Amino acid sequence: MRDMTQLTPSMEDYLEAILELSEREDVVRVTDIATRLKIAKASVTQALNNLKDLKLVTQDRYGPVWLTDKGRAYATAVRRRHRVLLHFLTEVLGVDPRTAERDACQMEHSISSTTLEHLLAFLEAHTYIKPGTEMANWRSPAKKEPARRDEPAVGERAKKSPPEPGG
Predict the structure, then answer these.
(1) Residue of 25, 34, 21, 20 whose CA lies nearest to 83
(2) What is the structure's pLDDT at 165?
(3) DSSP assignment string, 2-40
(4) Which end of the chain is more exposed for a tag (fewer CB within 10 A), N or C?
C-alpha cells in the first residue's frame, strides 16, 4: 500500500471531486466523477481502483463511490488548501476568479502545511478572514465586498498603478 504522502495531484483531485459531489448528491457514481473532472469513465475506474487499494474510497462493482473516513479527511484537507489559496489569490492579490481557480488548483498540490498555516495566519492577521474561520467549508461570497472597511474594494490594492518615479 502506498503512503498518503505519495498521492498524486490527480488522486487528490479525485478525492476533492468525490467529496464535493457527495455533498450535493445522495450517491456519487463513476459517471458523475467523469463529468465533473471532464475525463473518460475508464480513467475514473482505474483511479478508483488505486484509491480503493489505499482505503480512501469504497465501491461495490458498478455501484456508487463512497469516501472512507480516511478519504474524507484527506479530501477535506485538499479542499481547505484550495480554498485558502483561492481566497488569497482573489481577495488579497486581486487575481480574476477564473485564473485564481486554475492557479489554486495547481498550487494546492505542492504547498507545504507550514506555508499554508503561515498564509492562513497572514489572512487572519490582516483581517482578510475572521480568525478561526473553517476554510474547508468556506465558500467565496457571490458578491465581492471589501475584506476590511478601511481598505479599497477587493483586489484594488493589487490593481493600483505603482507611483510615478520621483512622485
Answers:
(1) 20
(2) 45
(3) --GGG--HHHHHHHHHHHHHHHHSSSB-HHHHHHHHT--
(4) C
